[in-house]
Amino acid sequence: MAHRMEKEYLTTGELSKRLNVSVRTIRYYDQIGLVEPSRKETGGKRCYSSKDILKLQKILLLKSLNLSLEDSRSILAEQSIDSILAVHKSLLVSEIDQLQSSLKHTQSLLNLLELEETIHWEDLISLVAGPQNEKMWSHYFSPQQQEVLEERLPKLESDSLATKKWINIIKRIELCLDNGIPPSSKEGQLILSDVDILTAETFGDDPKLAAAFWEARKSSQASEDLGLYAINPAVIEFLELADNTKPQR
Fold it and tell me: Which of 21, 117, 138, 216 is the most exposed place for a label (fewest CB within 10 A)?
């Protein structure tokens, strides 16, 4: 009889090994009445039947879906399964959105560190924490222009190749400024040429939009209004002087 019981039932320890779940978890589920053993022997030994084991496996599966124990209990009782899973899906979508937002914020930090080698928290708050002011964008650009900018404009929270190119341009200009290399130099003119190439890649066949965006970027107030990274005025002046000293063809 004892031999038959050992085949049909598993103790807490045996169940723990078979399902690779801790004894503590199994005991907790027992305490809250989620998965109780079918047999309790003298001395407190608990024995789980095949039906108990299946129920525990279901709980572990639902747990892997990030469902709460109470929702899992309701599903096992076949109460509002569709609605519970629908709510759970909505929560997962919300969590994904939050993770994507966190990822963008982290990338913004990395790009700021790349640009400035330090973090100015006041700037970061305005760039990352504050929502984009749509009314401000409407003040500077038409709805059609906004659509183009949203699609093509390199973003601080992006690790795209275009974003990396613009970061490198700014760093190269800052190196010229640090080393006293004038905008009219070969290096200054090469940087200007690279800026022209990147501008064409970004704005394509819309030079008017490129010019309008550049005018906005030259203004610290406009950059603040648009929630964009504030370019060092010295960098802007370097590009302006490089353009003014560009050899005429």
Answer: 117
> Residue 5's pLDDT is what?
42
For 97-116, how does the pLDDT look when each residue is reduced to its tens digit (9 = 90+)?
888 877 887 788 788 888 88
Amino acid at 123: D
Rounded Cα distance, 173 and 162, in Å: 17
Number of neighbouring beta carbons within 10 Å of residue 12: 17
95 to each of 20, 68, 100, 104, how far by Cα in Å? 28, 15, 9, 14
pLDDT in tens, 167-176: 999 999 999 9
Rounded to a whole number of angstroms, the CA Rg of the chain reads 31
Domains of the chain by start residue, with CATH = 2-77 (1.10.1660.10), 98-244 (no CATH)
10: helix, coil or strand? strand
CA distance 224 to 154: 17
Average pLDDT over residues 134-143: 80
pLDDT in tens, 75-100: 777 656 676 677 678 778 888 888 88
CA dist 188 and 155 (Å) reads 25
